[in-house]
Design goal:
Alpha-Beta Plaits, 32% helix, two-stranded antiparallel sheet, binds iron/sulfur cluster, Rossmann fold, 7-stranded mixed beta sheet
């Protein structure tokens, strides 16, 4: 283990408060700081989110340091309870995050999204689009439930930072290289999409909507507003390897813009192969393992994956990558490999 990576076994999670004091996160926080705790509250029906009582402890130690903190997540691109601020807050409440003494903030509200373009000049993106809310905190702590992911292989701190802090447009651009698809048979010609489209890229002719590719900004707003669910993201346009590199480029852009003022804490429990965005995720592949913390988000994810490989799983033995075993076509190492290249090039 790197000296800078800290690990607390799950069976000793009652020592989490002491662990936080030793893992270095508090050294980063000064009195009076405004600290963002980037979290995923879990989609409605998904039971695999970080236990709120552990999150409450994070809030308490930060307050003891004389700083203020907020729990924060952003609205998502897909249709679901977490797509809108009002219903997103309902899920946060249902999952027990509204009464642990930490105010909750949802970024990327549909009508009031504030986005910043950050120049990165990398392989896939020249610039990335970040929600300003995540840049305004003096310090950002990633509280990440570590799990598998159908396209990213794993969902760790890199994904929490990149997809979680990107604007709607940024999220769309990581997921797809194509403009949204319209299923003509579902379109009723109501023009709602055209009225909301910031690029004036949608025309409705003969009762059917059509997207003018050259004008589309890839913001995904039309997907959210269509009342008949006629518009969708062409997910398949970006394959896993490229998707993972895209995530890393966004994580890098946010990290760079925040001048590295980020700390990562991964919770290795409820190790489902599925993202917390699913309402009915598959059951865990291995027993709960522990908590991994450190300042280097790539190393924190790499160490987390290593721990999941070391343990005996429910369907795969010790030494086998449980997520890769579950989805042999989705690699789990690309984020870390590409992450090491980018983050050490500074
Ligand atoms: S909002 Fe949906 S149903 Fe209405 S015109 Fe656009 S695609 Fe068609
Ligand atoms: S993705 Fe955005 S810019 Fe493109 S058609 Fe839809 S609303 Fe318009």
């Amino acid at each position: 283990m790197s000296e800078k990576i800290h690990f607390l076994p799950w069976e000793r999670k009652e020592e989490f408060r002491e662990f936080l004091k030793k893992c270095g996160v508090l050294d980063e926080i000064r009195k009076g700081y405004r600290v963002g705790l980037k979290i995923h509250f879990g989609e409605k029906g998904n039971p695999h989110y970080i236990p709120p009582y552990l999150v409450k402890i994070v809030g308490e130690v930060i307050k003891d340091k004389g700083a203020k903190c907020w729990l924060i997540d952003s609205n998502v691109l897909y249709r679901g309870m977490r797509a809108r601020t009002s219903t997103h807050l309902e899920v946060a409440k249902e999952h027990g995050f509204m009464d642990i003494g930490i105010p909750v903030k949802i970024a990327g509200d549909f009508a009031q999204e504030r986005e910043k373009e950050v120049i990165v000049n990398l392989k896939h993106f020249r610039k990335v689009y970040i929600l300003e809310d995540f840049l305004e905190f003096d310090y950002l702590i990633l509280l990440t439930h570590f799990k598998g992911h159908a396209l990213a292989g794993i969902g760790g701190s890199i994904k929490n930072l990149s997809m979680g802090c990107a604007s709607r447009k940024g999220k769309y651009k990581m997921h797809s290289k194509m403009v949204p698809q319209i299923k003509k048979e579902l379109c009723i010609g109501c023009e709602t999409c055209a009225k909301h489209c910031p690029g004036e890229a949608i025309k409705v002719k003969n009762g059917k909507a059509k997207i003018i590719e050259e004008k589309c900004l890839g913001c995904g707003e039309c997907i959210q507003v269509c009342p008949t669910k006629a518009i969708s993201i062409p997910w398949e346009s970006v394959k896993s390897e490229e998707f993972q590199e895209r995530l890393v480029e966004y994580a890098f852009g946010i990290w760079k813009e925040r001048k590295g003022s980020i700390f990562a804490i991964n919770f290795l429990h409820s190790l489902s192969p599925d993202c917390d965005c699913l309402s009915k995720p598959a059951p865990p592949l291995a027993p709960d393992i522990g908590i991994v913390a450190g300042k280097n988000i790539v190393e924190v994810d790499e160490f987390s994956l290593k721990k999941t490989i070391e343990v005996k799983g429910y369907h795969a033995p010790e030494g086998v990558d449980k997520f890769l075993h579950h989805r042999p076509n989705i690699p789990t190492h690309i984020q870390m490999e590409y992450g090491k290249k980018l983050f050490t090039s500074l």
